[in-house]
Please model this.
Amino acid sequence: MASKLIPVVAEIKWIKKESRDTATYALKILDKDVNRDFKYEPGQFSMLSVVGIGEVPISFSSAPTDRDITHTIRIAGDVTTALSKLKVGDLIGVRGPFGRGWPLSELYDREPLIIAGGIGIAPMRSMIREIVNNYDKYFFRRTPVVVYGARTPKDILFRNEFPRYRGFFELILTVDSADPEEYWKGEIGFVTNVIKRLNINPLHTTAFICGPEIMMQSTIKELLLKGVAREKIFLSMERNMNCGIGLCGHCLFGPKFICKDGPVFRYIEVEEFLGIKEL
Amino acid sequence: MRAKIKKEDLVYLFLELKGTHKIIGPKVSNNVIVLSEIDFEDLPLGYRDLQSQGSYKLIKSDESTMFGYSVSADSFKRFLNPPNVEILSFKTSKRGLSFKPLTYQGKPLAFFGIRSCDREALRLYDKVFLEGLERDFYYNSIRQNLILIALNCINPGDNCFCASISTGPEVKGSFDLLITELDDCLLIESGSSFGDRLIKVLPQESVNETHMTKKKLVLEKCMGMFKKKISFNKLPDLIYKNIENPRWQEIAKRDLECGNCTQVCPTCFCSTTYDSVMLNGISKKITEISGRKIRVWDSCFSRNFARVHGGNFRLSRKARYRHWFAHKLAYSLEQFSLPGCVGCGRCITWCPMGIDLTQELEGFSDGE
Ligand SMILES: Cc1cc2nc3c(=O)[nH]c(=O)nc-3n(C[C@H](O)[C@H](O)[C@H](O)COP(=O)(O)OP(=O)(O)OC[C@H]3O[C@@H](n4cnc5c(N)ncnc54)[C@H](O)[C@@H]3O)c2cc1C
Ligand code: SF4
Ligand code: FES
Model:
């Protein structure tokens, strides 16, 4: 097995614009052997590099059972801007997959509640697609619920895909604010407000959350109030990352390496650290 | 295998090694003992170092003790994990994009005079760079041929506190050769077949039980000479209990966030990489560039360390000091089952403000 510290070369197969600042990139790893052995799980990430500019951690937005490996990337700073300038056929470096993903075994015989905020929908899409591709395997107790919040209707990613998921999920979209000129029939308000009103069976619920940390914290508070078990709440954390594999020290969150112990954690693993400012 | 040699005959070890190895050891430079490529003549024989909070002084005494000085300003880490090193080369051209790992190409290294604290730090380094999820190929290219000539301490420095963490003063980790200075000779023990070979070239006399007893006495005496200690048995809990203690803010007032402590710390391992594009690599077509990925030491005291797009997880000085302190004394134990502090005292000596982590830890204990 080649070292995960050395990038492999991938070609951009197609690009799909998702919103004003976000696009999905399908990658094809050029080396046939590496491509065949490249196995990832929902919730894991790769380090994508534009040579000469730098490297960034980006989650998989596709499911392992999908045909193409995709990443959905929002323009933030240097590297993501450079990525946004690339065209189909361009080459990038890929190191990965890294980290611990969503615990799919926790889906069996449960009532999954998937909660995403902002770009947090990217790693969630990987799990959503995994569920769609293998729906019958999990024996859900009820239709899984997806709550997804974005800033405005324009910022909602994968919007045109959602109708296809209707049969598989109860889907609740919410936006912080909507322009009255726009057609919007979803909810308005924060994700937490939706959770507050949500009718769930806390004993059967397993929650998966990805979004800004503050949103995850307030969401978890609501879930706990509803009686969801601490052990059945999973969240994906974000920190500065440079190596992706426990060498550079950048991603530490208390004693946890987000890159290798996470990015997905069971709430009880990080509970004691989450409330501590600037840890 | 064991032997005793006359003190001056140590020169033969250098003669034997220097053809095949780059010998890294202590030497005086600008009135400070630092590590460097050395020959026998460079050894700071007969020197004594006086270390205290934020201060270092070297004195020459005419005593016959060879290794009466203690720990050098820098640690051996910079030879295994250089502060600035090219780890990958990349090239894009019409034919595509390629990445190539770069490794150490020089002579194998031999660390001369590595003390127990630094030997224990090496144990942690091996955990990080070799025993993690991925072996660091650059580190490994040096480590796999590394020779260790360890030295038992007979005279701890004033800032040393390894005895209270059980990381010294006696070398417990593996080595090729181990030197213990006795009053009239050097006791040399081998810990590997390479060490056996080295011992054989030295003009030696055999060792008897008296020498081994003397060694024991020297080390026992050393154990009794420590001026500093740390309440290691209270770790890591003491840190977690005090993670929101207002005292962090008080320490931060004295802290300059210069990062000296992370530079001299033998276990600090954090780094950042960046791409450096060669000047001759830029052609008219942006698609044809070549360059190197460079890895440099980073420090959790630096402002950008925990920066992400749209925020910074450790903006306050207090948070950065706390992170460093907690990584050394708490997190490391959970991450690697090893303390992140080996008691060498360098961070105390080289802190311009003289911040002393043993005292700061005591400050938290007081509240108990
Ligand atoms: C596990 C994980 C998964 C992620 N998944 C996605 C995803 O699927 N889609 C997406 O759009 N974004 C994702 N991000 C966030 C993304 O990594 C940052 O937006 C990106 O690193 C910003 O880099 P930049 O060079 O454009 O920004 P700059 O502000 O120029 O950042 C410079 C450097 O700082 C570091 N850095 C900056 N921000 C972050 C950050 N938020 N997280 C980690 N390192 C950072 C990177 O090393 C980056 O190269 C993820 C982050 C993590 C930690
Ligand atoms: S800390 Fe211990 S092992 Fe290190 S130099 Fe001081 S006495 Fe020697
Ligand atoms: S990203 Fe480097 S240690 Fe986690």
User: Anything to note?
Assistant: The longest helix of chain A spans residues 213-226. Residues A 241-244, 246-251, 257, 259 surround FE2/S2 (inorganic) cluster (ligand 3) (CB under 6 Å).
